[in-house]
Nuclear transport factor 2 family protein (Variovorax terrae), 254 residues
Amino acid sequence: MTPQKQQVVALLKSIETGDPAPVAAINPDKYIQHNLSAADGLAGFGALMQMLPQGSAKVDTARVFQDGNYVFAHTDYNFFGPKIGFDIFRFEDGRIVEHWDNLQEKPAKPNPSGHTMTDGALEVTDLAKTEDNKRLVRAFVDDILVNGRMDKLTGYYDGDHYIQHNPQIGDGLSGLGAALQAMAKAGLTMKYDRIHKVLGEGNFVLAVSEGQFAGKHVSFYDLFRVQDGKIAEHWDTIEAIPPRPDWKNANGKF
């Protein structure tokens, strides 16, 4: 594990333990916060931690990746209630200077195929294919989720071999199709409007997008595992973006 990954894992764990030492990874003079519930800077991070009831937090980071100056983690939290989250940290001159995240309430039970939001593959492989895999995921999100080119869908998958960790959707393209039909029947619309970031390490790629879900302005974080040029596994979180007057900082979600 790289030193930056170690620093991120330790920093996230410090939310649970209260250990102040890992916070030294953050640049105290420049910490740009995109969690809209926290004020900007190191003081904002500290204030949020002080609001947590003593001993209530639990942090279990399932996977952590690095793409250049960015480290991104996938974590099972109890943080003002059980949540699953993705965190992205940007490093500059060896210190953390910027943070984005996306949190979703953790469901009480697994999805229709028995998967949780964090279980599944862990091993990073195919490091030489990182850029190819990032291009594939960007094209998939753009084609299918942003532009709805459903005629291209099957080209991104190896038949029905597709492991799904979204809490509402079963495995395979068949599971995805059934879920989309159920959503349409219930009048729930999902629209991706814009891709903001695509980060990757080997066979794992995280796409950060903005759009609408069930009538709300949301942030979509989608983590994909790519195998042999096809999408093989998917994890995600969806978080509603609060109205502008409720933001604790002016940096925006993205």
Notes: The chain is about 20% helix and 35% strand. The first helix runs from residue 3 to 17. The radius of gyration is 18 Å.
